[in-house]
Each structure stands twice: as structure tokens, then as C-alpha cells.
Amino acid sequence: MHPFWNFVVKFLPTWLAPNLITFTGFMFLVLNFLMLAFYDFDFTASAAEHEHVPSWVWVAAGIFNFLAYTLDGVDGKQARRTNSSTPLGELFDHGLDSWACIFFVATVYSIFGRLESGVAVLTLYYILWVVLFSFILSHWEKYNTGILFLPWGYDISQVTISLVYLVTAVVGVEKWYQPCLWHYLYRDLFSFMIIVCSFTVTLPMSLYNVLKAYRSNTLKHSSMYEAFLPFLSPVLLFVLSTTWVVFSPSNILELQPRIFYLMVGTAFANVTCKLIVCQMSNTRCQALSWLLLPMTPVVLLAVTGVVANETLLLYLWTAVVILAHIHYGVSVVRLFPHFQSS
User: Fold this and answer.
1) Whose CB has fewer CB within 10 Å in the chain, the N or C terminal residue?
2) Which segments cross the bilayer (predicted)?
């Protein structure tokens, strides 16, 4: 996509700040998430005998997704073109990318939905975790080797998703009910591709590059323990959220899948951003994210039934997580010039 991005960036005015381009692209994904939340809050609109999402929404989603992807590709080129590249810009870009994972996954989910013709909410929950861990692997690799490897599969997936939105607007969601290969449905292909790409390309490549650096004594950290330390908080977050899902008295994931996904994705973005800061500043990654400390009693209150209204608890905790993540981002941006000068 670099030739296309090189072509697009020439049309951008030189006064346009790269960080504004990054933020605008991110907001297109948020807008997609909000649009589908309005028309398909509980992921049932694509099922048979349900009122489907209007075709114009899928057209808008396809355009917005491609614009977000394009702006994410040209922001760095705009920075180099205007001699305004900064570490803050890199942090801002990757930080928003980590949060964007949940927005595009949830939006794509609305194509298939959750009922007979769709993907179960629990299956999508685990697919979301595959996507999240695939993202953090690239930054974990850079934390250990100093090199950020971004697989070309990301480009293919984004262009494909944009096209699928547009195709859905033309043929309708009913098209995805039909088998695409023998008796396998498109939903099966969707799940299969994400899982296979993660476990056969992203994970092996990252592990190989880190182990290669360890054997050649070019690993940035003193031991394999230090190298794998950044995975502690994401794994604990997975354990806590999965405990809530499995032992929920009211089956919270079935009741409020969109909000639960949003909570998990935002908490994961917060953990990932702290790794990105450590990776860029060449500092040791903290073993435990503070956000997991209050989450532990929240999960205990939920699974033990002490709090009767589990949905209200989820909404309140999601609001706390979102506000905490925004506060962290704003604080880092404000303190960044101080770190640079010192």
C-alpha cells in the first residue's frame, strides 16, 4: 500500500498536523462502532427474521474503515514530509491503534451476528483475544529487539474488511448465510483465517525473532524472564475477564456482549500503551498494571452474586476503564515534553 499512500499524502496540506491525521482516522473507527451500536447493539440485526442494518450504514462503514486505514498509513509519511516526526507522534499512533482493535472487531461482528447464522458471542470473545494478543506481539517484539515487525496480512485484512462492508450493502447480510466452501459458512472462514494467521504467522515470527536476538546476544533485556515480563498483565487481564464470563450468574456476555467487549478491549489497550511507552523509552516494563487491582474485586463481586445488578456493575466498570485510559493518555501526552527535555 505504500505507493498508494505516497500518492495520497501529496494532496494533504503541509500545515495539517500528522497527529490530527492519526486522530481523525481513529475517530472514523469509533464512528463505525457507534453507528453499528445504534442499529445493532446486541448483534442480532443480521439474523433471519430480524430488522437488518440499513444498506447505507454498510456503505458508510466501508468508506470509513478504508479512510481510517489510509490515514493510519499516511500520518507517518506526512510527518516525514513536513519534518515533524516525533516520538510522541509514534506513541500517539500506536496507542490509538491498540484501542482501535476492539472497534473494528465489534463492527465486523455485526455482519455475521450472534444467532443461528452467526458466530456465538463466546466464540467472538476468544477471537477478540486472538486479535489483541496478535497486536501486542508486534510491540513485545520491538520491546525486546528494537525492531517493529508489522505483517503484511494486516493490509490485506483491512482492505478485505472495507470491501466486505460494501458487498454487504449490495447483496445483503443474507449472502453470508450461504456456504462458501462445501458445507462451511463464511462465518467459519472468518474465524478460521484470524486464528490460523495468528498462530501460523504472527506468533511464530515474533517468537523466532526474539529467540534469535537472545541467541545472538542482541536482546535488549538481561534474561528471558525480563523478555516475557510484559505478558504478565495481559494474561492476568484474560484470566480475570474470562473468570467473569464463565462464572457470571446472569451470563453477562450473553446479556451485554458489546459493552463487555468494549471493557476488555479498552483495558487491554491501556496495558499495551504502557508497554509501548516502555519500549520507546528503553525502560523496564512494569510487572503489573494498576488497572487490574480494582478489577479483581469487581470480578469477585460479579461472580459471587454480591452485586445483584450485574449489568449495572459492568456499565460502571466499563466507564471507569474508559476514563482511566483517557486520563492515562492525556497524562502521557502532557508529560512527554518533560521527558524529552530531561
Assistant:
1) C
2) 20-41, 53-71, 91-112, 119-140, 189-211, 223-247, 259-277, 289-308, 314-336
